[in-house]
């Protein structure tokens, strides 16, 4: 096969000795940059770990359904760079979303990604709204696929009598989520009431009621 | 100066003859791609016009304040690629936003851009909410600058007694806007009531009331 | 100075009249650019259709397992932009891969994407090789996730006695696949024998044997 | 609203305790990466600060006109990432440029950005030159907008009797500026005279004269 | 719901008939997008040809030195997308530059690319100037390599007694060149004299002299 | 030329004093980010050095032919970011490849770059294979150019009686190489035999023979 001039290898050998028991080849950092999630240095994304192994590219956090006995009747479990450090710089991640019967993943956006979903089980009413305020929606069932374009408000609702579950893929290692109701009515500090009353054309009392119902559980 | 081999110029000369009286140098399309806004061919962004002039890079649509006597007491006027075709492929645009006293630019997102604003006159309470549901807000006055990070929900409110106005710059030729109240309560077809009642924990009657108040004016 | 030529404007005026009552908002093309798969104009990706609906963002082509009674004992079914035109410009797609017991998805690359997989059923030995010739491999089972970094050679092997299946997500609307054995031994025209004999340090007879076994089935 | 499994929150809680008095949510670093301008680690752009607040997204440095009693009769004041650390990784910035009557912002390039300007007051002759050596120029007045495409040489000249001022927006957090006369005739070390004499077809004496007039003021 | 309208499909059907016997595999357009240099549709870059062959990825235009008996004593010959249509969308190109003894490639920028050069023969003084007005320069000889960062002003000068030649590589299919002297003193229409006199602090007479010497040869 | 307000310069002056004898202007880090190859912090690419000079943008490692008396009869010598630290973040690099008569650069991919080559001497049979398994090949000789699209398998073979050499340019500072035979048959740990026998439809004995012949020389 191709041969490499020995002097080019020397720095790597030297580095290997210097790093002592580090197993990984530093050259590999150019193919991947496994997140050093606890680095004191913060950058856009994460700095890279020097040593890593196959576990850094794998997880079982989305193997099982999560509990959906909450207000919305749904649960998002993410397999993003925070769980799969090997995803750092690679621009992709997964989530699993479980829905109780009647469960809703409320209108939300992902500021940094398009989402494509595959229905593992059950049936969902899904939709996104364009910037021209056109709703594009459809009912999809097990094995079907649907796309939510980057940054647009979208939702999924389980109108069936049985649980539903999806695998969602994103073209970002950490797509971020802004669940609209919680973003506006449950953030800290609170959005001023006079912004919300004017925006939604409702009274202060109604704003306070929504805020109390959406407040994070203690 | 640098000289070019004649054979390299020949195709351009030939093209010039073929196009007849078209004045523009096709080489220039590589520096810019002035939007052909009415092309029958649709691509990501716009195809390029063959002929253009300095007017394609200019506009006066944001020179004057717009009327703010509407429900929200604010008006956005855009100088994006639809008004300045020369912006096509260049990744930047401006808007002017005017606010009546008490006026609000309601919570909204730009799916494709970060926004940076400069206050032309007046004083505004501005804020954005992170995906960790933290509100970052500030009151800024004439001559001050504020940034709304890409994709995050944000708003501006004129709490003063005089009009306010800003110039907003975006790193997109067409950043898009999703005004949250209209996106959820005034789109076509409508978001199902059972999505909105569950999301905001309110009754159908309240949903209908918001929908009626936010419905587009006939 | 370059000037608008009137004849260039005529088609746009005509088009405007012709469109008349068309419901779709051309503004929406800026949120999405649904692929016009049969356009005579070819661009990087695809031109956009003028009219589209929710079906353009959905497919059921990966709902069911595909037949795996082939030489490799595996089958890839893609839900990419060619099947889901709404994916155009959005940078993501899915595939389903089915494996018979003993089935192999042979070593291959995706020139344009990182891949992240979720095991629907069964158990697979998976691995990728870095540019430093380090194999990173692991056995993963139902519900687990694994990542194959952009452009690197990787494979999946079903060493179990039951079928296996995965959902694979890519950060490209059309990631492309180069299955190494077919790329080198079954392309048209053929890679010269003296390239393959020297590359793999085998005889012409062995090269010919591999070529005959990997030749596309008539 | 959506609920999150408690174990996922634990690392953040732990991190919060460990960081002691740090106010900001580390999750927020994924929405923004506020520049740590004094970090010892240098990267493309800047590393991120752990704690930040609304002031990091704001500045008043361009609120007032700057002094224009200099050789060129103009002054650029930047509101880029060095003044607004929250701009880091967000790809946008502003400048204010003031012009005395007769003032000139001499021909220059921004290696990393397109520029779009809004005239605050006065009137300017503006222009850019394409790589085909075509000048695209126009006189614009208060409230008008003009675009200077990425990387191309451009200038603004106040031919009026009153001061002028603009707000310039860039699609880069730090667009950089190469003012052509200073770049060529006032850099350190100096560009060799025989490069400048041949380039501009002038004598050494003329080169020296330009150099002396453009030399930075002590 | 938006639906396909038949009249819009007609032109495509017609065109499909016209193309008829086109042999090339459309799947391949996803690996490459060979420029259709004569397409009536203009886009950012070029639309793709339907049929292509190996010649589209090759050229011999930079095989031989070009004539350097011109004012600057140098000649640039480009092997960019205009000569190698296969380069379209691939983000790279080459040029060959020949220098007579004493020849100069005058200070210039490439708005869209970094440049890396390899010296084929001879010796050159090369340099670039940073936005902080720092000159980074070096004399390099046969076999040596030098880098000119994206967008920055740079030059090469042959101070030797023998010809020199380089191969220059760019990370753009069409990097564009703004040769500073010609950009400012030989564009059409001309940059106003009062811009140039103030910028370079010289008299109108000197501006006119430079303009006459740099004017394109008839 | 343009003047800057003194307070803006103060932080830089202060930083200069603090850094002591460091010569480079920290502002320059925004034009370039010269790789600090030995930094303890690892990021995507490399952190930047604070001080640098013209040597960081130059190398002579590809000035001379390298020895080609190895199994493949070819040698790749890279002038990438590991040899030219100034290339960091600039997206381009060069390699020199030498071929003995009969020498082969075996089928390989660059996961992160398109390659364009210029033939310094000799004649080569070159080719790439598309994802549709179409071989695009050509014999090119001294002075000719050929392109290998991003990520696709390609090779070069010297069928002549004299040595050949090329300069290869990549649009990546570190394109990475996966030489297919070594990737599959000489990695560590080894790819399981049952993957290779099924993939290439050969016996274990043949797999072992290839592995032994391609094993790295001790």
TrEMBL record, chains A, B, C, D, E, F:
Naturally occurring in which organism (per UniProt): Melastoma candidum
Name of the protein this chain belongs to: Uncharacterized protein
